[in-house]
Structures are given as C-alpha cells and as structure tokens.
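Progress report, Aim 2. The chain analyzed during this reporting quarter is listed below.
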Amino acid sequence: MKNIYTLSILLFFFLSFTKVQAFDTTANVTTPGTLNIVAKTYLTYVYSLTVTGTIDARDFKTLRDSTTTDFQVLDLSGATIAAYTGKAGTQDTNSDYYPANAIPQYAFSNFNVYI
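Predicted structure tokens for the chain:
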C-alpha cells in the first residue's frame, strides 16, 4: 500500500511539471510567418493544435517541418491565409508566390493523414 501511495505522489508531481497541457493547445499568430516563434515551446510534442490569426506559407512549412508528432487534430478554421512572396514557403526555391486563401502546395507532404 505504501508503494502505491508513493508511486501516486511521484506520478502526480511528474505530470504537474511536464508539458502535458500542450497536447491540446491554441496558437494565435498575429503576424504571418511567425508560428515558429509563437508555438516554439510546444510545437514538437503537440497532438491537437488550433491555429488562429493570420498565417502564410512559412507557417505551413513550420507545421510540416517542425513537428515530431502526427497531429490528431489540426484546426485552421479560425485562421486566415495571407499571400506570401519569397523562398521560405513550402516549396523552398521552386516558387516565389503563394496566393491568399489557399493552402500551399506541399503543405502537408510529410504528414500521415488519417481519415
């Protein structure tokens, strides 16, 4: 009984000090292209992410390349996609222009998609 009690206390402290709350979180991007800054502390282990604000092709690249887990939920319904011109988007050097209101080509090329 004492071992179960001790194990329960240790488990409580472990869960209290880990980043468990970030498994389901929201990132509000106020400046397009800054998701990597807004979400850098939890992006590598989040399973359910809601993105709000204004994003562009650079943010899609961040979602694609900076996560180590497959998202179970990726909610972009509260996000607006801005146009982007530059080499830092999802196609690297193959494209300079990404139109507004469109998911960039190759945005989810490394994702495992489950339907």
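The beta strands are 24-29, 48-55, 73-81, 84-85, 97-98. The domain at 18-98 is CATH 3.80.10.10 (Leucine-rich repeat, LRR (right-handed beta-alpha superhelix)). These observations will guide the mutagenesis work planned for the next reporting period.
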